[in-house]
Write a structure and sequence with these properties.
46% of the residues lie in helices and 18% in strands. By secondary structure, it is α+β, with helices and mostly antiparallel strands. It has a 7-stranded mixed sheet. α8 packs antiparallel against α9 (232-246) and α9 (232-246) packs antiparallel against α10. Pfam families: COR-B (PF25497).
Length: 271
Amino acid sequence: MHESIEKKENGMPLCWREGAVLKLQNSRALVKIKPDEKQIEIIIKGDNKRGALGAICNELNQINASIKKISISKLIPCNCSENCPERYSYEKLLKAEMKREETIQCHESYEHIAISLLLDGYKRREERVKKFNEIHSRTTINYGEISISNDNIHIHDIVGPVNVKARLDHVEQMVMSAPAVEDGKKKELSSLIEELKEALEPAANAKSDDTDRVIEDAERVAKEISREKPNKSHLLSITEDLKETAKAVENIAPLAVKVATKIAVFVTGMF
């Protein structure tokens, strides 16, 4: 991936003995070796975090495949807070998802975290199912780790069934913790999110990409509302996006547009 290494203004590459900054997939990635912990940490920011992460992991997989008797253990960082030190085994999260478990408890905050939100930023669901089958069809030797930081990736763009409930449950949690919103309005908005949850279910399998975009916009709305001082003009913009993306699933989930419009009207009238 030498061609992807970012360069300084003077043309010098941004790389050193134990790391490098990569520019790919409209994103920037810091790939850093942590020798004492036998880890490679990946921190990504940009428009396509998962695409960049996939490209980097594919390269690492090729390197590991060239070395006999070596395998890697992937750790997914907790997203309950920005600096939570908790890490979850990717394989164990995958197994829990296959067993239809929806949440896992963080041992730092003791919050219950949606498994789908932890996994979606790393791999699409159909790829995860394939990986699960591969894991259980071979013997591996644990040697070293890759600690993957998804930089609050909420994870997003799912191919295959979208876990509407878990992701919109997370949206409700953000709404209910919003400091600038009165308790009564929190409950009203939470009820609207519940309506959106039910409205989107018919499209979760048939139009997974479009359903995912609707949920992404709902997440953006909740994120803005949860700020100390929400920006009304920004809320107006992203609620319009929510109404627009909901139109893409209208033929399968006709109530989605109606509920998205109700959310937009309610939210923009809150501030």
